[in-house]
Amino acid sequence: MLSVIIITKNEAENIERCLKSVAWADEIIIVDSGSTDRTIEIASEYTENIFSGDWKGYGIQKQRALMQVTGDWVLNLDADESVTPELQKEIQAAVLSKTISAYRIPIRLHFYDKTLKHTLSPSRRIRLFKRAGAHYSDDIVHERIILPDGAKVAQLCEYILHYSYRDISHALSKMNQYSSFSAKMRLSENAPPMFLSVLFSAGWMFVRTFIFQLGFLDGKSGLILSIMSMEAAYYRGLKQLYPDQEKID
pLDDT-based confidence at 249, cuts 50/70/90? Predict the structure, then answer.
């Protein structure tokens, strides 16, 4: 039995595309954190398993969803992602395995009607896993699934489509939000970095995204998003030196 977990807040523009792509799953679990748009109304057409909880960070929200699951296998999706028909077939075959406990699934960013093969398209994130013994870290952002000792992890070939940015303004808004989350998390673990270190990290982010992760093969879109990745790293570091004064939602 396969369960899909999704966390939401004001995802009316994305949630139906996401839910349509996994309507074949045995169970869909949604944990919402105070949507004021039509997210819940739309989601209720696809599942009765909708729960509410105040926002505590991505890791805690994912764990809340995982605790509601009854299936043996879990597919973790964000509301702005969708499963391709090809990936559906691969997942349905993968969950029949008797030896593999989890699978990494590639993610491809969809940006202005173009699916990018490289830029901001990670390939090694665990998104499909057996529920038994698994739990999420409590990180505010960049949460990770923690598997039982000895769990065998394999890689799927097909990919999740990620509709992360509606447009440039939306991308800038998310950059601001995520850099605040990341800065807060890092400050809770370490002392603020030196300013020169912030500059180096930002420059390295561009080189890593555009050169080593082959963003240049995605053309102008790859360049634009690599620059924005560099900016995000810069603002994350800057917010550690000059923390936000307002509460982050």
Answer: low
